[in-house]
Each structure stands twice: as C-alpha cells, then as structure tokens.
Design brief:
It is a single chain. It is built from nine helices and 13 strands. The chain is an alpha/beta fold and 326 residues long. The protein has one domain: Ribonuclease Z/Hydroxyacylglutathione hydrolase-like (Metallo-beta-lactamase, Chain A, 4-Layer Sandwich). The strands form two sheets. Strands 1-2-3-4-5-6-7 form a seven-stranded mixed beta sheet. It binds zinc ion. Zinc ion (ZN) binds next to helix 2.
Length: 326
C-alpha cells in the first residue's frame, strides 16, 4: 500500500493544428556561464529556447541543475561544470521529468545523487513515449538514439528538501502543479535566486499548460511568491529574469487566459474560433541579432494557442460556471 498526498496528473499530449515545437536540439548548443553570486552559476543556452542549466558550489560539494536532452549534452554539461569548480559534483536536481531536463541524467556517476519531487519521479514511467514527445524538438538531430535508459531520481521529496553543500545551503521546493504536476524549484536563499524549470519564464513568454489547470497553476505560483525570497530566476528556457515583473506577468497571463476561455465557453464559441479571439498580450520581443529570434514570435504564438486549447479542454471537463472564476 502507498498513501501519498497527490497522484501524478497525466500531461496533455494533444496539440493544436500547426503547433510549432521548440527547437531544443543539441546542435550548436553552448552553455555560457553567468555568475550570479560567488559560486552560483546560471549556465545559459546560447540559442533560445534551448535548455538552461545551473551549478551551485559549496566548500564540500557542488550541485548541478538539470541534465540536458541527451546523454551527450549531459557529458558536455559536466565538462562545463568541472571547468568552473574543483569541488566534487555530488547532487543533480531535476526541475521536471521532461526528457530535455532528464535524459542527460545517465551521464552523471553513481556518486551523484539525483534529486527531484516525488511526482516528477512518479511521472518517469514510459521512456519510449517520452522520447516520442521530445523527438519533435530535436529537428533532425540523431542524439535521441543515444537515449536507452532513463535514470530516475535517487532521492525524492514532497514539498521541501534542504541540501547543505558546505557554507551554502540549497532548498528544493514543490509548490503544487504548474507546467507539470511535479514542478521543482531550486532556491539558493543567500543569493536570492532560483532555478524554476518550466514553472516560470521571462515576462512575455507563455508557459505550457500541460497539466491543464490554469487556476491551480496560479495558486502554485502564489504559494511560491509567499515563500521564496527571490530577486532573479533562471528559467528552464529563455533568458534570465527579474522575479517580480515575470511573476506578475505570468499570474495575469494565466488569469486572463482562464477568464477569456471560460467566458467564450459559456457563450458557445467553438474552439477553432478561440485561437484568434484571445490575443497574447505583451509578448517578449527579442533583439533581431539574438540566435533563434527569427522563429521566436511564431513560437510564442504557438505556445499561447496550445494554452487556449488545453484551458478549453480543462474548463470543459470540469464544467464552466460564471461564479467559479468571477
Ligand atoms: Zn524543458
């Protein structure tokens, strides 16, 4: 018998017509270190929206955040981390179970403890299905062929986990369902910075509503806001972000989305008419010289339309009512 506070929410696999997958292929990927505080490094992908990573160094041990989309990316990431510190890498945190954050786990040795939320681990059940989901983001790169095992977390937690690296403490949090049901944040309290995986993004970049529930997502964000001392965060995808404007944008985005879809659902507007009826407000605009900038507006619109579809499915399922969101 297993009695747990909550089960995994299966993520939506439906996509709207014309959905554009983000390009997360390892081709051309470079992780550029950005020192946020002494021994606290954002490892930022040189091309948007490929996966960002992180490294936190203490006097005794170091911790890496997320592992890349293939074992090859994991090995490259380890090399980048070893250039930055001679402390032994003893911990690897996974912010989500998604393959672009976990397929590289196998590159880390047995002396490295992989840590994540219980719900992230519980979602790691079907490697072939996950490989199929992520293949659409590889854009022809053959690296997925190298993914033959899915290394699961060795240590899991429900709400909170503290790791002492020596002279520096790292906190792992799960605030409830967001992008997925197990979203994990890695907070470095003394640096007032967190790695947030897919839970948050820079203002103007829509999340992916894969767990379906836009209102539950806002509750999780508010719980985070009430708990963490945060000046900046490193998202799983996209640029480094000041916390306040991005958290505010995200809450407004999810509330507008839920209210907009709910209202039209009650009016009987068909799904195909919703995509054009709810605009993406204040999308992030990149300087044209940024690698990946050419496809970026279409990608943001595509993520927004996906959220309209998934909010529509969710609100249809739970039954639309005027009072609920009003
Ligand atoms: Zn991702």
């Amino acid at each position: 018998m297993h009695c747990w506070p909550a089960p995994v929410v299966p993520e939506a696999t439906e996509r709207q017509p014309g959905f554009m997958a983000p390009n997360l292929s390892p081709k051309g990927l470079r992780l550029l270190p950005h020192e946020l505080a002494d021994g606290v490094y954002a490892l930022m992908a040189n091309q948007l929206p490929k996966d960002n990573n992180g490294l936190v160094v203490g006097t005794r041990a170091a911790l890496v955040i997320d592992a890349g989309i293939t074992p090859g990316v994991g090995r490259y990431l380890l090399g980048v981390a070893r250039e930055l510190t001679d402390r032994p890498i003893r911990y690897l945190a996974n912010t989500t179970y998604h393959g672009d954050h976990t397929f590289g786990n196998v590159a880390f040795g047995d002396d490295v403890a992989v840590v994540s939320s219980r719900l992230n681990k519980a979602a790691m059940t079907d490697l072939e299905a996950e490989k199929r989901m992520r293949s659409e983001s590889m854009y022809g790169d053959p690296g997925m062929e190298e993914v033959v095992t899915w290394r699961e977390p060795d240590v899991v937690f429900d709400r909170f986990c503290e790791i002492d690296l020596g002279g520096r403490v790292v906190h792992l949090w799960h605030f409830g369902s967001g992008n997925g049901s197990g979203d994990t944040l890695v907070h470095v309290p003394d640096a007032r910075v967190a790695w947030v995986g897919n839970f948050l993004r820079r203002a103007g970049m829509p999340p992916m509503l894969l767990a379906g529930d836009p209102i539950g997502y806002t509750r999780s964000i508010r719980a985070m806001k009430a708990t963490l001392e945060l000046d900046r965060f490193v998202p799983g995808h996209g640029p480094l972000s000041d916390a306040e404007p991005s958290v505010s944008w995200m809450l407004a985005y999810l509330e507008d989305l839920a209210a907009g879809v709910d209202q039209r659902l009650r009016q009987g507007v068909p799904l195909e008419d919703l995509y054009g009826a709810i605009p993406l407000r204040d999308p992030l605009r990149l300087p044209p010289e940024t690698p990946g900038a050419d496809r970026f507006p279409a990608l943001m619109q595509s993520l927004h339309e996906l959220n309209i579809l998934l909010a529509y499915r969710y609100l249809t399922k739970i039954g639309s009512s005027g009072e609920r969101l009003g």
